[in-house]
């Protein structure tokens, strides 16, 4: 579970805006990474909590839905969302303010170069059948996303164009600006938006991507779904998310595996459960029946005198273990079909059974 924003700031749920501001100031000073006893992780946490709780609209949503709603909104996802436990710091554009840079100046840390922007993560569902999930399957997916521009290979430069000093930052890669914050006015240093901190830019921008190094399009992706995967499990495909502008690191692709129901089978861990109907005669006299398993039909011997509800175990006919060898079992529960209509003759025969 993600930590509660109120707990992080150490304020009550009904804390006033002033209380929140005060708590944030105190903690931000205490944990700033450039100070002795500072803590980068903690500082980010505090910043993140403050970003949400200091904004009336965001706070209201947080109170209602909890953390994670930010990712689900405008993040370019379909349904779902990653929910609690997802690391928001790895999220491009997750609302981390530039407080780090601001404090960098304040505490003498100097200007720090911002990491190049990272591409967004993508989340999508992939549907497989019960049997495909059991044995694994290769799926071809179509992903509509931001990709590295093929024309320029992500450099943003028109073919044959050389790189020249960026005109906006005069080659420094940085721009200064004055920022008004709750702690007063600060001069902050940020990466130059024109060259993304590189200091140089192509003389002539690529016509296909207008110098960003990225284009939107559809990509086909072949994915290996591992044997033994269960409904609701997520596969992470490193670097298969959206490409980042100016050659930054791509995001990841998260695949939520959705296993379709199979009327014949029920899964319990690595075991498969099913039911098989037999006649009264087979139950009493014994016999052989065909049982559907994920391997196909398998013969099963029914011993004479089998009782309704008896379960037989077919060893090794269950689901292959995920990421290790071996398989679970298939368990068949026997249902004895009691006839509803009887001929005169059959009735007579059964009446002879009364004493059994
Ligand atoms: Zn291009
Ligand atoms: Zn620049």
Which CATH class of the domain at 1-97 applies here? Mainly Alpha
State the distance separating the first and last CA atoms. 60 Å
The 3D shape can be described as: elongated
Bound molecules: zinc ion
Summarize the entry for a quick read:
This protein has 356 residues and is an alpha+beta fold. The protein has nine helices and 15 strands.
Write the layout of secondary structure elements.
Layout: H1 5-9, H2 17-31, H3 40-53, H4 56-65, H5 69-72, H6 99-106, E1 122-128, H7 130-135, E2 137-148, E3 163-165, E4 174-181, E5 184-191, E6 200-202, E7 214-225, E8 234-237, E9 253-259, E10 266-268, E11 271-279, H8 280-285, E12 287-293, E13 296-302, E14 311-314, E15 330-337, H9 344-351
Parallel strand pairs: 1-9, 11-15
Antiparallel strand pairs: 2-7, 3-6, 4-5, 8-9, 10-11, 12-13, 14-15
Helix pairs in contact: 2-3
Bound molecules: zinc ion (2 copies).
One zinc ion is lined by residues 149, 151-152, 156, 206, 208-209, 213.
Write up this protein.
This protein is α+β, with helices and mostly antiparallel strands and 356 residues long. Among the domains are: 1-97, DnaJ domain (Helix Hairpins), CATH 1.10.287.110; 266-342, HSP40/DNAj peptide-binding domain, CATH 2.60.260. 21% of the residues lie in helices and 29% in strands. It has a four-stranded mixed sheet. It has a three-stranded mixed sheet with strand order 1-9-8. Helix 2 runs antiparallel to helix 3. The longest helix has 15 residues, at 17-31. The two termini are 60 Å apart. The model is unreliable at 69-113 (pLDDT under 50). Bound molecules: zinc ion (ZN) (2 copies). Residues 149, 151-152, 156, 206, 208-209, 213 line the site of one zinc ion. One zinc ion binds at residues 166, 168-169, 173, 192, 194-195, 199.
């Amino acid at each position: 579970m993600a930590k509660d924003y109120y707990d992080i700031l150490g304020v009550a749920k009904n804390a006033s805006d002033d209380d929140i501001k005060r708590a944030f100031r105190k903690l931000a000073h205490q944990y700033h990474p450039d100070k002795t006893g500072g803590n980068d992780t903690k500082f980010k946490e505090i910043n993140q909590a403050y970003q949400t709780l200091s904004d009336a609209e965001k706070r209201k949503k947080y109170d209602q839905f909890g953390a994670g709603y930010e990712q689900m909104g405008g993040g370019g996802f379909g349904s779902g969302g990653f929910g609690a436990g997802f690391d928001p710091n790895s999220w491009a554009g997750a609302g981390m303010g530039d407080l780090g840079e601001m404090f960098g100046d304040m505490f003498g840390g100097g200007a720090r170069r911002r990491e190049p922007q990272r591409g967004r993560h993508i989340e999508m569902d992939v549907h497989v059948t019960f049997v495909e999930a059991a044995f694994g399957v290769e799926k071809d997916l179509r992903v509509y996303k931001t990709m590295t521009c093929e024309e320029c290979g992500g450099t943003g430069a028109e073919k044959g164009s050389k790189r020249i000093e960026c005109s906006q930052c005069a080659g420094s890669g940085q721009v200064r600006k004055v920022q008004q914050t709750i702690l007063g006015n600060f001069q902050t240093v940020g990466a130059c938006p024109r060259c993304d901190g590189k200091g140089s830019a192509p003389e002539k921008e690529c016509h296909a991507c207008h110098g960003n190094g990225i284009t939107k399009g559809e990509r086909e992706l072949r994915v290996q779904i591992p044997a033994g995967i269960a409904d609701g499990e997520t596969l992470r495909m490193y670097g298969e998310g959206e490409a980042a502008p100016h050659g930054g690191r791509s995001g990841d692709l998260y695949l939520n595996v959705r296993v379709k129901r199979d009327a014949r089978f029920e899964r319990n861990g690595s075991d498969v459960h099913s039911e098989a109907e037999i006649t009264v005669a087979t139950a009493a006299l014994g016999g052989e029946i065909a049982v559907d398993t994920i391997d196909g039909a398998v013969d099963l011997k029914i011993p004479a005198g089998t009782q309704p509800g008896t379960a037989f175990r077919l060893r090794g006919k269950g689901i292959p273990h995920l990421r290790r060898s071996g398989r679970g079992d298939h368990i068949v529960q026997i249902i004895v079909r009691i006839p509803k209509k009887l001929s005169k003759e059959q009735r007579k025969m059964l009446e002879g059974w009364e004493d059994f």
